[in-house]
Amino acid sequence: MTAFIQSTPLQRVFKLGSLEVDCECPNATFEESIKAIRKNYSFFRFGKIYEDDGVVEDDRIVYNLPKLPPNSNG
Length: 74
Description:
alpha+beta; 4-stranded mixed beta sheet; 4 strands; elongated
């Protein structure tokens, strides 16, 4: 008996607080996905996200961007 395993890539979601941004390029590499997200959402430029930081939730992988500390004019 031969079993076939068919895999589909998980949908990437980038999250900052309550904002969730779906990756528009599901077949792209992680770096290409980050570049595409940063073009439309400039605040994703300031935090570091690594591929290993992703957390699997249901049928998607979620990358949480750490919030930046507020600026002070101190």
